[in-house]
Amino acid sequence: MGLCGLRRKISLPGRGESSCDNLCQRSSEDGAGQVIKRISTSVLATTVLTVAGVSAASADTARGWERAAMSVPAAQTISKGEGVTVAVLDTGIRTDHPALKGRATEGPDYLKENDKSEAWYGEHGTAMASSVLDVAPESKVLGLRVIRDNDDPDYQGGSLNNPDALSQAIIYATDHGADVISMSLGSRTSWGGYSEKDLTAIDYALSKGVVVLGAVGNLGDKNDGGDNGISYPSAYPGVITVAASVPDGSRASFSSVHSYVDIAAPGVSIYEADHRSSGRKSGEGTSAACALAAGVSALIVSKYPDLAPRQVEQVLEKTASHASRGYSAETGYGVINAQAALQAAAKLTPEKTVLTGETGVGLHFGPGDDGTPKTFDQGVDSANVGIAVFGAFATLFSILGGLWLFKSGRRLQRQGANYGGPGGSVAYPQYSAHPVPPQQYPYQQAAQSTQNPYQQPNPPHE
């Protein structure tokens, strides 16, 4: 699960991993840009939502442009995230990286492994944690490992360590002081990645006042094989779903398009921590956008800690770049404006938090109507298309079979008319073993008898 901006891979948050169903990410290094087009098996694949390398379109983007695009420098004069903990549910983090050092801790590994010393460990998670801290520099990061990096040997092997990794990590983060949960990951399966346990855990976090964010996914580019599939956990009610934008504010080509998208954040040429060095590298994807949005959420929660998660979502939406023009399934209400969101939050009266399943819950996210229109073009979902195609063929075959049977019956009728048998000139021959000879008219005299029986014969002439 995941759509950030560094690479594409599929690991299962305990549900298994699949290197061949890499539908959520692109990688210029290993050719994963050619997304597998066949329908994946019905396994919940959890992938980091990152695209490897830098696209040609973003190659000239100024380093660090993302902070200015979201008005972060101005927002940091109001809040820097002090006192807030952001849980980064990802591939683990390297707490000794300069971008994280002194501001990050790591919790349990929910994949139940012991491989933190491996060179590949924490690539994606470290990058995401650095983006959070770039926006909210005085916040703390709690890293929880729920998915695998693609260089993890078990990622390639599809190890099924813990099917409940994501839900357990959400509950742990909630119970250990997290104020914001960032999930730059996503499911990918033909028959849906919905999990009752994950939804229950998200409900629990929301009920405790924790703001929950998720990346929408990197399946929006049909020219690159994307099928715009629905991805969890971003599709769950209560999750603030984040799309990726480019410098002009429009959707990044890989960013998935869905009616549950709330807002957008920069998602190309993001200057983030490189886990293999003490430096940074450029990455792109909806994962990066989600991490940046989580950082902005930390700024708001730090300044106004009593706001309900729904209210944090509201101020992000109502102050986004095209909120006044209306909603778009591509970028929600637009690119985040951190300064404007903080100013709008100052005018709100805190509301109580409720579970998403309670009475009064809105259409999509949290209690109350969030203003999202009920219907939008969501693009093509492979699971629904597959079911529809199967149903269409089944119906077509049924119709053709019925026509064939009907025509066969008519043909047999015509054959019976010509050669006897049912419907023919000699009907139901089984009821007559021998033909019935024609009967004479009972009152008819023999043909040779023409004399009137009552007429006396003429006397003979003499």
From TrEMBL:
The active site annotation covers 90 (charge relay system), 124 (charge relay system), 287 (charge relay system)
Q: Which residues form the Peptidase S8/S53 domain?
A: 81-334
Give the InterPro entries listed for this entry: Peptidase_S8/S53_dom, Peptidase_S8/S53_dom_sf, Peptidase_S8_Asp-AS, Peptidase_S8_subtilisin-like, Peptidase_S8_subtilisin-rel
An example molecular function term from Gene Ontology annotations: serine-type endopeptidase activity
- Sequence intervals crossing the membrane: 385-406
Report the coiled-coil segments.
none
| Segments of this protein annotated with the region Disordered | 423-462
**Which biological processes are named by the entry's GO terms?**
proteolysis
Q: Which keywords label this protein?
A: Hydrolase, Membrane, Protease, Serine protease, Transmembrane, Transmembrane helix
Q: Does the keyword Translocase apply?
A: no
- Which Pfam families would you find in this protein's record? Peptidase_S8
PANTHER family documented for this protein: CEREVISIN-RELATED (PTHR43806:SF11), PEPTIDASE S8 (PTHR43806)
Which protein family is it in? Answer: Belongs to the peptidase S8 family.
Name this polypeptide is given: Serine protease
